[in-house]
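2024-03-11 09:14:02 DEBUG pipeline.ingest accepted 1 chain
2024-03-11 09:14:02 DEBUG pipeline.ingest length=326
2024-03-11 09:14:03 DEBUG pipeline.predict start
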Amino acid sequence: MTVLVTGSSGHLGEALMRTLRADRRDAIGLDVLPSPFTDVVGSIADRGLVKRAMNGVRAVLHTATLHKPHVGTHGRDAFVETNVLGTLILLEEAARVGVESFVMTSTTSAFGDALRPPPGEPAAWIDEEVAPVPKNIYGVTKTAAEDLCRLFWRNERLPCIVLRTSRFFPEPDDDPQARAAFTSDNLKANEFLYRRVAIEDVVDAHLVAAERAPAIGFGLYVISATTPFQREDAARLRDDAASVARERVPGWQDEYARRGWRMAASIDRVYDNALARRELGWRPKWDVEAVVARLRETGDIRGPLAKAIGEKGYHAEPFEGRPYPA
């Protein structure tokens, strides 16, 4: 079965292409940027190019997108062209050739302001029942693309799975206060408690979703590392996250102390992946305990796939004293 991977020069796209090629599966990479993992160079908003690339394809893994860090450098029309029009063209051409499964990579950023409870309120418990409140053009275009996937299942019977992935990028955090408070690896290790996922598990989620899409029809799932927290922890997580982590997660304190790391003092949201595990049969391997164990063994929170891909960044040009323009 031939798989089309859009965004194949990006972090997730490359991870998928590496995995598919290692498994000797037929895969075509499509991206606006050339790379060793891109076979077709061009935009997903170019219908002629997409039409040619779709020949013989039975599954689409659609990771191509403009991201949140592009909000400060790209106009809203560029977001609409790539994230909405590009997705629409892919869906139309996939339906035309009878693709068996279409998997779209969305983002937990689509939840927007629903992720930030007011001061004094418990941490937000984020699952598929939470209604998105997009706060920028990125979130608006990603939720629009999700709706297009739902529409194509409803009207064209194209099996579509939407995966709202949490953070898996290795680049520096976009929050200057977070960058100032923690080293990069300390911050990312903390995030495995509530808002991060390993690239290996994101790849597995996409491949499982492609297999399950014909049976499910349409589904939308939060893809994040399995949290050790429970809903009843939400209030305490805002006030004293470290004490909750000590109760729920054994074994991190010594490794953190040895490295001079700190646990987050407050956590404002928790992503719950229970529906994806239940309906997709997805089995993420890298929760915070596994990540700390890998850190203890190898000195690195990253696995081999993440190391092979490395950092890609989001812009060709540097910005004074910060990784992103806004």
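2024-03-11 09:14:41 DEBUG pipeline.report The chain is about 45% helix and 15% strand.
2024-03-11 09:14:41 DEBUG pipeline.predict end
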